[in-house]
Structures are given as C-alpha cells and as structure tokens.
Amino acid sequence: MLVGEALLTGTGLEAARLHRRAALLSRTGGGTLISPVVGDERVLSPGVRHVPVRVAPGLTHENLVAEVADAVGALLDAARPKLVHCMGVSSGVPAVLRRRPGARVVIEPGILPSQWLRDHQPKLPAERLLDMVSVEDKTLARADAVIARSMIEAATLVQRGVPHEKVYTSPDGVPIGVQTGAAPDLPHVLWLGDMAPWSGWAVPMDALARLKRPWRLTLVTPPDAPAGQMEAHARALRVSDRVTVSRDDSMENIISRLDAASVVVCSMLHTRCTETGGVIPESVLWALAAGRAIVASDLPVVRTYAGAAARYFPPGDAGTLATQLEALLGSPDARDTLVEHGVRTAAALDWAETERTIADVWAEVPGD
Questions:
Q1: Residue 135 contacts by C-beta under 8 Å, 6 or more apart in sequence?
Q2: What does residue 133 show for φ and ψ, rounded to 5 degrees?
Q3: Per-residue pLDDT for 365 more than 90?
Q4: What dihedral angle (degrees, nearest 10) is formed by the CA atoms of 40, 41, 47, 53?
Q5: 3-state per-residue secondary structure call for 78-91
Q6: Is the pLDDT assigned to residue 18 strictly greater than 60?
Q7: Would the N or C end of the chain have less CB density within 10 A of its end CB?
C-alpha cells in the first residue's frame, strides 16, 4: 500500500514524486494507492487500485494531510497490506499503530508537521510543539525503514532518534522531458517557487534592483499563490516594468520560461524546514534539466543537489546575489562553465536510481 499526502493534480515536485512512486508500485507487483484528490482524477496504472480521499478545493495543507491520515486507519484494517509506504509522517502514525503482525512500514517524511508549523507560525510557543515532536519521533523510530531525500535530511533523522541502519537516502531526480534550446545571451533571470516562508521570493528583486545593467526577471508561481505581493514589491522597488509574474506552474509554462532564461535563481532562506533538509530545491532540478546557469542560496540541502553547477550567496543576502548576477549576466563563459558542471550533476540525479533504492527497500527490509 502506498499512501500519498499530495494532490495528484499538482504540478510541483510533490505530485511528480507521487506519480513516480505509483508507477514503481505498478512495476513491482501492484498494490493499493491512497491519495487526496479534488474531483474525479485517478491514477490508472496496471495492478494499482487507487482509493481516492476526496478533499475540498482550496483545503489548507494542514487539513489536507489530516484528511488523509484520518482515512488511512480504516483502509489499513480493510486491506491488511504486507507493506505500507507513507509519503508523510502524519499518515505514518496510523500505519505504525494499526499494522498487523509481520507487516512492514516505510515512511518518507519530507517536511515534518512540526517543522512546517514552526516556519509558518514562528511566534508559536515551543510548548505547543512538544507533543507533536514526540509523536513524530516515536513514529519514525518504530518504522521499519525511513526514506530521506538528501544526506542532510538523513542526518537530521538520525539526530532525532531514527536508528541509522533504518535510514535510506534516495534523492529526487531532475524533471524528465525538458527540451530547451541553447541559453540566450539576453539578461533574463528566472525564479521558480511558491510563497512559503522559506522561498525567499523577494531576494532576486531586491538584488536586481541594484544593477545598473539591463535585465528582466520572471517569477513563476502556482495559480493559487498570493502573487499580488510580488507585484506590489516590484512597484515599491520601481522595477515593475522589468518584472513578470507568471501564475502558471504547469510543465509547459516552466519549460517555455526556462527556454528564454539565461540564469535561474534559487533564493531559499534559512528556516527550520530548509535547515533539516525537508525542502528540496525544485528550481535547481529544473535548471539542471534545462541546462541553465544557477545562482543559489548557500544552504547544505541546496549544495547537495546543485554541487558545482551553481554560484552561491548567503541566504537572504541581496547584495551578494547582485554581485553574482552582475558577473554571470555579463559573462557567457562563466555561465557556460556552470552549465558544464550541471551536465555531470544532472546525470547523478537519476529517477531510475532513486526507484531502485526504494524497490530494494520494499523487497528486502524486514518487519518487526
């Protein structure tokens, strides 16, 4: 049984990862997929029975995750699976508590609920998180295997009490099917992301506003992001004529924007979610797939994915980012060097290798 906490219709990395896991389930003997859906969408893969958890459009992240976790318990009792792979620790709680003897539980935690809450409500008293953290730690420790998506996340999980022999690292791959031409010489900068507290969406604008050379910036966000804040910030900086906000994170739109860009900026901030490796730098993966130069925040999880394919700046430091952009926008050779490094980096971020690791875990990890 595979339990997802992301909407299948999403266009971001969470949805892509869920579809990849469902395809792997199909190739390795089939099973049951549980995931939240809005409307009638289904996963149609041979041997996979999709049980949708219907949720209302626009449901908050917290409520969506809670809906899935509430549905898992009864479905576990009915299906009695030999193995449950939960893509989130919230659904892992009932999986651990209600598994039958001999059944195995694999948890792929990603951003933990306590980390998400801490970043979204920084003034929340620490006492309110103690019970949540305790439940997370006990659930992860009782799982038969825990999947991390970076070495940073793996180290965090071990620090939180997960036995190191139960932790497996399986990085995400670069997007597949990205076809772009050679990078243009035009000084066009691209930023991809949502408006989560760790996104750092304002930093590229603050940096570019300092440059005395021509430039354009495109920010790509999901359709439901409150992107009016981006436009207001551009007006406040008096650069709105150079900034385009595209509320369309479909693969087709992202590829077209990448095709027109010469540099991609990943401006993630230092928060609880990025410090612990729960957030994956999705814009870095897109840039690597498209063969574009990268300027990125100097965070361990970002370096894990970008490596030598990026120039780095301290998180939130618009001045240093401006210096890096000035150098790259004025030097095609410098951009080409980063792209050459990116070819090797992208080759190591292979979905097939990721899926081999997870298939091995499904096949070989013993239960309690």
A1: 93
A2: -65, -40
A3: no
A4: -70
A5: HHCCCEEEEECHHH
A6: yes
A7: C
